[in-house]
From TrEMBL:
<dbReference type="InterPro" id="IPR013611">
    <property type="entry name" value="Transp-assoc_OB_typ2"/>
</dbReference>
<keyword id="KW-0813">Transport</keyword>
<keyword id="KW-0406">Ion transport</keyword>
<dbReference type="Pfam" id="PF00005">
    <property type="entry name" value="ABC_tran"/>
</dbReference>
<dbReference type="InterPro" id="IPR017871">
    <property type="entry name" value="ABC_transporter-like_CS"/>
</dbReference>
<dbReference type="GO" id="GO:0016887">
    <property type="term" value="F:ATP hydrolysis activity"/>
</dbReference>
<keyword id="KW-1003">Cell membrane</keyword>
<feature type="domain" description="ABC transporter">
    <location>
        <begin position="5"/>
        <end position="235"/>
    </location>
</feature>
<dbReference type="GO" id="GO:0015418">
    <property type="term" value="F:ABC-type quaternary ammonium compound transporting activity"/>
</dbReference>
<keyword id="KW-0997">Cell inner membrane</keyword>
<dbReference type="InterPro" id="IPR050093">
    <property type="entry name" value="ABC_SmlMolc_Importer"/>
</dbReference>
<keyword id="KW-0472">Membrane</keyword>
<dbReference type="Pfam" id="PF08402">
    <property type="entry name" value="TOBE_2"/>
</dbReference>
<keyword id="KW-0067">ATP-binding</keyword>
<dbReference type="InterPro" id="IPR003593">
    <property type="entry name" value="AAA+_ATPase"/>
</dbReference>
<dbReference type="InterPro" id="IPR027417">
    <property type="entry name" value="P-loop_NTPase"/>
</dbReference>
<dbReference type="InterPro" id="IPR015853">
    <property type="entry name" value="ABC_transpr_FbpC"/>
</dbReference>
Length: 346
C-alpha cells in the first residue's frame, strides 16, 4: 500500500520533559491507526506535531511523500491538508451546523452540495440549521467529523474524540465513526487511552509509552503477542506467572506449556502471560486443582476467580468462560491452559 504519512526520528522536549523520543511511524493510504497509551505518554503531542501545531526539535514528517517538516522547513498547519477533530468537537458556537461543516471549504465548494453530502454521511441530514448548543455531545462529534472530512484532507487526526461522552454513547459512536472514515476512504489517526476503543476502531495500533513507540501492529497481534508485560496488561486482562523455559517449553504451575514462537526469550527463568480466555475450567482431576473464589456472570460469559495452590506456589487467577455454566464459591475444579503462551525474561 502507498504510504500516506511517514515519520522519522521525531523528538520533542518541553524544558526538562522529553515528550517524544525518536518516534518513527508509517501509515498507509486508507488505514486507521490508533495511538494508544496512558495519559502523559506523548500521544497528543505527536498528533499536534503531525498537524503542525507543535514544532518538533528534530526529525522528518512526510505527507504523501512531501516533507512538511524537517531541519529546513516547517509547512504551516493550514497548508498540510489535515483534518483535525479535537476533544469535545470544538464547534464554532456562533455558526449553525451547515456553516460549521462549510468552514474549511472554498467559496466554489460551498456552492455545491458538499455540506449536505457530509451531513448525510455522518447521519446528521436535516439538521443544517441547528446551533451547536442544540445538539447532544454525540451529535456535536458527528458534525466535527463532517467538518474535518469536508475538504477531503490527506489525513484526519482525532484527539480523544469520545472522552467527554458516556460509555454507552462511546461504544455506538465509535462504530459509526469507523464506518464513516472507511466510507470516505480516509486515512486517520485516533489518539486514545482506551484499549477497547483502539482495538475496535483501528486497522493498526501503535502503543506509545514515555514518548517512545513500544509496538506497532494490527489489533490481533497487539493483544495476543504483546511486546512486553506492560503492553500485555495495558491492552487487556492478563495472568502472569513464573516459569522455567527450556527448548521452547515452559514448566509452570500448570505443567509444561508451549511457548509461542514470537517470543524472544532464551532458556531460563521467565514470566508467562496468559489471557483469561485461554483457561479451561473442568472437573476435578482435569488439570491443576483450583478452588473457586468467586463467579461473576455477564450473560455471554463468566469471569471465574480461582485460587491455585501447587507445590510451593499459590496464586489467584481469573478465567473467562463462555456459556451458561456457573461455579459455586469454594467448588474444586481442574484448571488447564489451551494454546501457546507468551514468555518474557524474568
Amino acid at each position: 500500500m502507498k504510504s500516506k504519512l511517514h515519520l522519522t526520528g521525531i523528538c520533542k522536549t518541553f524544558g526538562t520533559l522529553t515528550a517524544l523520543d525518536d518516534v518513527s511511524l508509517e501509515l498507509s493510504t486508507g488505514q486507521i491507526m490508533a495511538l494508544l497509551g496512558p495519559s502523559g505518554c506523548g500521544k497528543t503531542t505527536l498528533l499536534r506535531c503531525i498537524a503542525g501545531f507543535e514544532v518538533p526539535d528534530n526529525g522528518v514528517i512526510k505527507i504523501e511523500g512531501n516533507n512538511v517538516y524537517d531541519a529546513h522547513r516547517n509547512i504551516p498547519p493550514e497548508k498540510r491538508s489535515i483534518g483535525y477533530v479535537p476533544q469535545e468537537g470544538a464547534l464554532f458556537p456562533h455558526l449553525n451546523v451547515a456553516k460549521n461543516v462549510a468552514f474549511g471549504l472554498s467559496r466554489t465548494e460551498r456552492q455545491t452540495n458538499r455540506v449536505e453530502e457530509m451531513l448525510e454521511m455522518v447521519g446528521m441530514e436535516g439538521l443544517q440549521k441547528r446551533m451547536p448548543h442544540e445538539l447532544s455531545g454525540g451529535q456535536q462529534q458527528r458534525v466535527a467529523l463532517a467538518r474535518a472530512l469536508a475538504p477531503s484532507p490527506s489525513i484526519v487526526l482525532l484527539d480523544e474524540p469520545f472522552s467527554a461522552l458516556d460509555a454507552g454513547l462511546r461504544a455506538s459512536l465509535r462504530e459509526d465513526v469507523r464506518r464513516t472514515l472507511k466510507q470516505a476512504g480516509a486515512t486517520a489517526i485516533i489518539v486514545t487511552h482506551d484499549q477497547e476503543e483502539a482495538m475496535s476502531m483501528a486497522d493498526v495500533v501503535s502503543v506509545i509509552r514515555s514518548g517512545k513507540i513500544i509496538q506497532t501492529a494490527d489489533p490481533e497481534t497487539i493483544y495476543h503477542y504483546p511486546e512486553d508485560e506492560e503492553v500485555a496488561s495495558f491492552v487487556g486482562e492478563a495472568v502472569f506467572l513464573p516459569a522455567i523455559v527450556r527448548d521452547n517449553e515452559a514448566q509452570s504451575i500448570f505443567g509444561p506449556l508451549p511457548v509461542n514462537q514470537r517470543c524472544r526469550i532464551v532458556d531460563g527463568e521467565a514470566t508467562l502471560m496468559i489471557r483469561p480466555e485461554q483457561f479451561t475450567v473442568g472437573e476435578p482431576g482435569e488439570g491443576t486443582p483450583a478452588r473457586v473464589v468467586s463467579n461473576v456472570y455477564f450473560g455471554h460469559d463468566s469471569l471465574v476467580r480461582l485460587h491455585v495452590s501447587h507445590s510451593s506456589s499459590e496464586m489467584e487467577i481469573s478465567a473467562r468462560i463462555l456459556g451458561m455454566k456457573r461455579f459455586g464459591e469454594g467448588e474444586v475444579v481442574g484448571l488447564s491452559v489451551k494454546g501457546s503462551v507468551m514468555a518474557y525474561k524474568a
